[in-house]
Design goal:
By secondary structure, the protein is α/β, with parallel strands linked by helices. It has helices at 3-19, 55-62, 81-87, 99-102, 113-125, 128-131, 142-174, 185-195, 201-232, 235-245, 252-262, 271-277, 302-310, and strands spanning 22-28, 32-38, 44-51, 70-75, 93-97, 282-287, 290-296. It has a five-stranded mixed β-sheet. Strand 1 (22-28) and strand 2 (32-38) form a beta hairpin. The radius of gyration is 26 Å and the shape is elongated.
């Protein structure tokens, strides 16, 4: 057979495989998931609701031979990861839907879990996710996900430290005392040992408890920062780390947050798209010859903006 014939056979095989493809929409919740299956023509094959705790039943459902080959779409939610890990390698393709964009595809019907899952399945069968790339989200692999969780946990610990320091500062102001310039566990403990008699019993107890919490919080931050370090020196992240830390104001913690949140920088073929992903582009109000720019959109990772503010 000549090359043209081989190519035609290959294309025919791909078309046949696509015609046999099952498109599955999943509406995931913390206690249960609603599944709707349809074919290329949008004809519904099957629908089912399965409790999330029944992992064996979920695996059994997606292992059914009549559903394969299949493409599965799940709307992005804060805990979708376990389902992606469970289905990875068991289905032909996994798609993570952007709920902000898919919400625009609404129908004049009452909202139910089955209708939400059916909408996702029909959008998938109709090729909407291929035509409109904004409908799908970037799915980090397990390594990047762990890296991201560590940097976000550090952000939360730092926020907790700031909250505790502000609480101590308010008590100091109530007693007309400036207190240490930088409030941390050690400085607050030292200040109390020198000026503890100037506080009431209750305020002194409050400050002692805050000091203990600050000590514990600072130890946690230090431990998390040590766990982040090996990720920065991985081959896949080292290049980005070296470039970012060459910029004044950016050190290990800021570069770690930026790398973990952005992931693969090559996903963005233009700087404007990266700025949009971070929510740093201004809002635009345009009508005829009138164009007004507002505040930044903030439609992106808040941790990227926090890191840049720190830098």
């Amino acid at each position: 057979m000549n090359r043209t014939g081989e190519r035609n056979n290959s294309l025919n095989g791909a078309d046949n495989r696509e015609d046999k493809m099952t498109y599955i929409g999943v509406d995931l919740h913390k206690d249960s998931m609603t599944i709707v299956c349809c074919d290329k023509q949008g004809e519904f094959i099957r629908k089912e609701r399965i409790p999330c705790k029944c992992v064996g039943k979920i695996e059994e459902f997606f292992a059914q031979p009549q559903l394969h080959p299949c493409t599965v779409v799940v709307e992005a939610i804060g805990f979708y990861h376990w389902l992606f890990d469970l289905l990875e390698g068991k289905v032909e393709k996994l798609v993570l839907a952007n709920p902000v964009e898919t919400r625009k595809y609404c129908w004049d019907q009452a909202k139910t879990d089955f209708r939400d899952a059916r909408k996702l399945a029909l959008m998938l069968a109709g090729g909407e996710f291929e035509r409109n790339k904004s409908l799908s989200c970037f799915v980090p692999d397990k390594t990047l996900r762990t890296f991201r969780e560590l940097t976000r946990y550090r952000h939360n610990l730092v926020d907790r430290h700031t909250s505790l320091a502000n609480s101590a500062h308010r008590i100091l102001l109530k007693n007309n005392l400036a207190g240490p310039k930088n409030i941390n566990g050690k400085s607050l403990e030292s200040f109390l040992s020198r000026f503890g008699e100037k506080f009431s019993v209750y305020h002194k107890n409050f400050l002692m408890q805050i000091s203990e919490n600050l000590f514990y919080n600072e130890r946690q931050i230090k431990q998390v920062e040590q766990e982040i370090q090996p990720f920065l020196h991985m081959d896949r992240f080292k290049q980005f780390y070296d470039i970012l830390t060459s910029i004044p104001g950016i050190g290990d913690t800021v570069s770690a947050s930026l790398i973990s949140e952005i992931g693969d920088f090559s996903r963005f073929d233009h700087p404007d798209k990266l700025a949009s992903y971070a929510g740093l582009c201004p809002r635009v109000f345009a009508s005829d010859k009138t164009v007004r720019y507002g505040k930044i959109t903030k439609k992106g990772s808040v941790f990227i903006r926090k890191s840049l503010i720190n830098a």
